[in-house]
Amino acid sequence: MDLKNNFSKITKSISESASNVVQKSNELIEVSSLNGEISNEEKKKNMIYIAIGKVVYNSFINKAELSEEIRHKCEAILEHDEQIKIIMDKIINVKRVKKCPNCGVDMNISINFCPDCGVMQKLIEDDNTL
Ligand SMILES: [Zn+2]
Q1: Interval 70-107: pLDDT, tens
Q2: Origin, by domain of life (predicted)?
């Protein structure tokens, strides 16, 4: 009698634990899915921040009156554009290929006239000293 009672208590406790595990696991799945929704909303917010930044940057380019803080940030973008140009020149030197500024065709950096459209190319210094 007592043994049967204990056994029934144990099985009840096991089935309660199992049910708790299922409940916890469902809870985790739901929380993780809701966290995913939050992260999607955050991504959408960040895209809007970037869009706002581009509007402000365009007004900087168009010489609008801006606060000093915003002007400094816009000037930092210009510095990064300069860095990008320098890196692109390095790529040209590594690949020894340049793009025609007129038609976009690739050609060897030593060619002075585009073989496709005939436009004269900006002379890029050959860096053989390295
Ligand atoms: Zn061309």
Answers
A1: 999 999 999 999 999 999 889 888 999 888 999 999 99
A2: Bacteria
What is the C-alpha to C-alpha distance for residues 75 and 57, in angstroms, rounded to an integer? 9
Distance between CA atoms of residues 75 and 70, nearest Å: 9
Residues flanking ion ligand 1, Cβ below 5 Å: 100, 102-103, 114, 116-117, 119
Q: Is the dihedral of CA 80, 81, 86, 88 positive or negative?
A: positive
CA 103 to ligand 1 center in whole angstroms:
4
Matching residue, tokens 């999607």: 40
> Which is more confident, 37 or 2?
37
Beta bridge partners of residue 20, listed in sequence order: none
**For residue 121, how far is its CA from the centre of ligand 1 (angstroms)?**
9
